[in-house]
TrEMBL record:
Residues 13-168 form the Glycosyltransferase subfamily 4-like N-terminal domain. One of its GO terms (molecular function) is glycosyltransferase activity. Gene3D superfamilies: Glycogen Phosphorylase B. The lineage of its organism: Bacteria, Bacillati, Bacillota, Clostridia, Eubacteriales. Coiled coil: none annotated. This is Glycosyl transferase family 1. Residues 178-333 form the Glycosyl transferase family domain. InterPro entries: Glyco_trans_1, Glyco_trans_4-like_N. It comes from Acetobacterium bakii.
Length: 358
């Protein structure tokens, strides 16, 4: 089998990490893989030496002309590679690839990576998705909730597959006393709702002044978030270190990890935190990714979206117990066995094989 992956870029991101893990696994299984990215830029993830990365980049300074020319470039590259199947992710790339490969006869699988009620951002793009999706060969969804958003003719040719986890990427289990630190991670945008995390932590901090909050990431709302934190908390109580290449090392020794998002797909960082045995609190947000990973009270804690009081109470519940964090962390670590790329990757390959060219 020869597979072409098409995505925005191979810079740091959830879909990009999944592609890197799948390519590594498939290459080990003697599957030939190539990657086409619409944007130019270095890969943030290590790729097998045999994997060719075709970065198209900007073709024209005119936005509309650039898109039109990219249709042609994607078509040219795919026809030159002659794959048995194309896997496009995330959703906005899928709706781009279908018309680009129209008439080639090459099967196209689209992988949705977020809440389909919200993504793609533009209403026109969501309308275009309705027009294009019936022409795709198949679909991979992360959760039942995301799949069930779509009509029957889409669901009937789809499969629900979780994100794979490369266990070899995880650091060794943490030994010793955990830091009194709550960690959040993500792009500083509206989706991640870090104001909720900061406000909830401010409530929690009133009775737990020995704790600190650390938010890793960057984005357009960083200045606004720093201003909010300064207005609610002492300067030393909250830090914004930016992006780090040692994220997993930073997370594994923390008392807890918190996801405060309004919506998500299946967050890789939650999977990794759980696999390392870090107690996780998450909003029970659409499209059901955290809810699919976390059994509330057993391997993590779920709170309603946007509820700072419930989130603060969940933080206190962990901080005030010696037994609960250890129990949640121990149960959470089992997610590593369930989502091991050797298991999940095999299911991805099986689905792609079913839809390959004869």
């Amino acid at each position: 089998m020869k597979v072409v992956f098409i995505t925005r870029s191979m810079e740091a991101g959830g879909a990009e990490r999944v592609i890197a893990q799948l390519v590594k696994y498939m290459t080990e299984k003697k599957t030939e893989c190539a990657i086409i990215t619409l944007n130019n830029g270095p890969a943030a993830y290590e790729l097998p030496a045999a994997t060719v990365l075709h970065a198209i980049g900007k073709v024209s300074q005119n936005r509309r002309l650039d898109k039109i020319l990219k249709y042609g470039e994607v078509r040219r590259l795919v026809q030159a590679i002659k794959p048995d199947i194309v896997l496009a992710m995330p959703e906005e790339i899928g709706i781009f690839v279908i018309p680009a490969l129209w008439g080639t006869g090459i099967p196209v699988i689209i992988s949705e990576r977020n809440n389909p009620r919200v993504m793609p951002w533009r209403k026109g793009s969501r309308l275009f998705r309705r027009l294009m999706y019936p022409f795709a060969t198949g679909f991979v969804f992360q959760t039942d909730q995301a799949r069930d958003f779509f009509p029957l003719h889409i669901r009937n040719k789809s499969i629900v597959l979780p994100n794979p986890l490369d266990l070899g990427r995880l650091p060794k289990p943490f030994c010793g006393a955990k830091r009194n630190e709550i960690v959040g991670v993500g792009r500083m945008n509206k989706q991640k709702n870090f104001p909720l995390l900061i406000r909830a932590f401010a409530l929690f901090y009133e009775n737990h002044p020995d704790y600190v909050l650390t938010i890793y990431g960057e984005g357009e709302l960083q200045e606004e978030l720093e201003k909010l934190a300064r207005g609610l908390l002492p300067e030393a109580a909250v830090s914004f270190p930016g992006v780090t290449s040692e994220l997993l090392e930073k997370i594994r020794g923390a008392a807890m990890f918190v996801l405060s998002s309004d919506y998500e797909g299946m967050p890789n960082v939650v999977i990794e935190a759980m696999a390392m045995g870090v107690p996780v609190i998450s909003t029970d947000c659409p499209s059901g990714g955290p809810g699919a990973l976390i059994k509330d009270g057993s391997n993590g804690l779920l709170v309603p979206v946007g509820d700072e009081i419930a989130l603060s109470a969940a933080m206190a519940r962990l901080a005030d117990s010696k037994v609960l964090p250890e129990a949640l962390g121990k149960n959470a670590s089992n997610i590593g066995k369930e989502l091991d790329v050797k298991i999940v990757g095999k299911n991805w390959m099986s689905y792609l094989n079913q839809h390959c060219l004869d």
